[in-house]
């Protein structure tokens, strides 16, 4: 088995550890540093271009300074677009977060992987962060060869940071993750866990081919909790939203019930409290938006689209206020989080991607068995 010296890494964070926190409310915060990217992958869920918008640097650093050692997220997840177009900001943000006890993960498309040595700025980023993920899929490979990505993984492992790959499958039968997964295991053993998602019909991915809108679910009265409303998300205009729904992040819709503030004016403590205690968000996590809409007499036609429609509905707000306020609402929410965490990271991944690859998130664990949810955001 390869030895990449991972015992020396201090506070570094494994992918499974990161994913184990993914359903805990406000255990992490996702930050989009930029909508820019030098690649033009056909499936890009954010439709990033070379000319996209950047998050305001001073506003972000000011927001991170509101973290305290007693009240801060466990994880700061930096994404984009391509966050490594702003390596200085990645380092500053990770350093600020680390001073409060928050660990940082970064997800890059590896545009810098040209077959040469690791660029010094990327090496500095690797020292500043606690987890370094690279994207690899058939669309990325049109710009960045797989062998170059593997060489970057080797170099990153040499710095002591924990790494992972974000792979994409184009449908449950796509053999791509099997092929790449086998190569990764041969070259890196269990040092490179893999998170396998699937191409989604959002951003440029929506233009790849006609894809149906995700169904609301077979039974509008059934509880279908949203897994994606646990970590607040900072979008490039500085708004903080309750989930990573791409239509919200891209400002196509901004439902009021998903707004948690703005990093220029809202502290982490306020964001966390709003995320944790708002009855509407509690019930979205507990029974899901379709059930709420059905209770409120609203039509349901798509999972997240139904959620967006809850905005401004007095009937939805009255029902969620009744069900989700106070200690009873808190208890319902805790039970839902607990249920969602059952089965660990692989079960969570299996609900949102091809189930047969979910165990790759935690090499050494057995395959996950729960089938994918049809209403993933
Ligand atoms: S249902 Fe969709 S829009 Fe609503 S909180 Fe969940 S991910 Fe966001």
TrEMBL record:
<feature type="region of interest" description="Disordered">
    <location>
        <begin position="357"/>
        <end position="377"/>
    </location>
</feature>
<dbReference type="InterPro" id="IPR058240">
    <property type="entry name" value="rSAM_sf"/>
</dbReference>
<keyword id="KW-0411">Iron-sulfur</keyword>
<keyword id="KW-0408">Iron</keyword>
<keyword id="KW-0479">Metal-binding</keyword>
<dbReference type="Pfam" id="PF04055">
    <property type="entry name" value="Radical_SAM"/>
</dbReference>
<dbReference type="InterPro" id="IPR007197">
    <property type="entry name" value="rSAM"/>
</dbReference>
<protein>
    <recommendedName>
        <fullName>Radical SAM core domain-containing protein</fullName>
    </recommendedName>
</protein>
<keyword id="KW-0949">S-adenosyl-L-methionine</keyword>
<dbReference type="InterPro" id="IPR013785">
    <property type="entry name" value="Aldolase_TIM"/>
</dbReference>
<feature type="domain" description="Radical SAM core">
    <location>
        <begin position="31"/>
        <end position="147"/>
    </location>
</feature>
<feature type="region of interest" description="Disordered">
    <location>
        <begin position="200"/>
        <end position="220"/>
    </location>
</feature>
<dbReference type="InterPro" id="IPR050377">
    <property type="entry name" value="Radical_SAM_PqqE_MftC-like"/>
</dbReference>
């Amino acid at each position: 088995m390869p030895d990449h010296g991972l015992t020396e890494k201090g506070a570094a964070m494994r992918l499974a550890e990161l994913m184990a926190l993914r359903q805990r409310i406000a255990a992490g915060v996702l930050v989009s540093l930029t909508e820019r990217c030098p690649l033009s992958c056909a499936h890009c869920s954010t439709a990033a271009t070379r000319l996209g918008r950047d998050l305001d640097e001073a506003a972000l650093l000011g927001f991170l300074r509101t973290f305290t050692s007693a009240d801060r997220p466990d994880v700061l997840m930096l994404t984009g677009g391509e966050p490594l177009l702003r390596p200085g900001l990645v380092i500053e943000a990770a350093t600020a977060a680390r001073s409060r006890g928050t660990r940082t993960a970064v997800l890059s498309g590896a545009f810098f992987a040209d077959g040469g040595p690791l660029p010094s700025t990327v090496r500095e980023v690797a020292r500043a962060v606690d987890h370094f993920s690279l994207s690899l899929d058939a669309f990325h490979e049109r710009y960045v060869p797989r062998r170059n990505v593997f060489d970057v993984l080797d170099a990153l492992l040499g710095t002591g940071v924990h790494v992972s790959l974000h792979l994409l499958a184009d449908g449950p039968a796509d053999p791509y993750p099997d092929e790449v997964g086998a190569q990764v295991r041969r070259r890196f053993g269990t040092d490179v866990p893999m998170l396998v998602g699937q191409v989604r019909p959002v951003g440029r991915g929506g233009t790849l081919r006609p894809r149906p809108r995700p169904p609301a679910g077979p039974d509008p009265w059934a509880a279908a909790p949203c897994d994606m409303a646990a970590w607040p998300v900072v979008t490039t205009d500085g708004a903080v939203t309750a989930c990573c729904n791409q239509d919200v992040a891209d400002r196509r819709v901004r439902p009021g019930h998903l707004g948690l503030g703005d990093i220029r004016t809202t502290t982490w403590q306020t964001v966390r409290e709003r995320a944790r205690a708002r009855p509407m968000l509690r019930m979205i996590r507990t029974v899901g938006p379709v059930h709420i809409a059905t209770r409120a007499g609203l039509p349901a036609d798509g999972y997240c689209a139904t959620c967006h429609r809850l905005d401004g509905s007095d009937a939805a707000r009255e029902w969620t206020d009744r069900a989700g306020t106070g200690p009873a609402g808190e208890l319902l929410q805790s039970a839902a989080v607990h249920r969602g965490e059952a089965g660990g990271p692989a079960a969570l991944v299996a609900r949102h991607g091809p189930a047969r690859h979910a165990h790759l998130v935690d090499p050494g664990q057995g395959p996950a068995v729960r089938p994918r949810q049809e209403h993933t955001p």
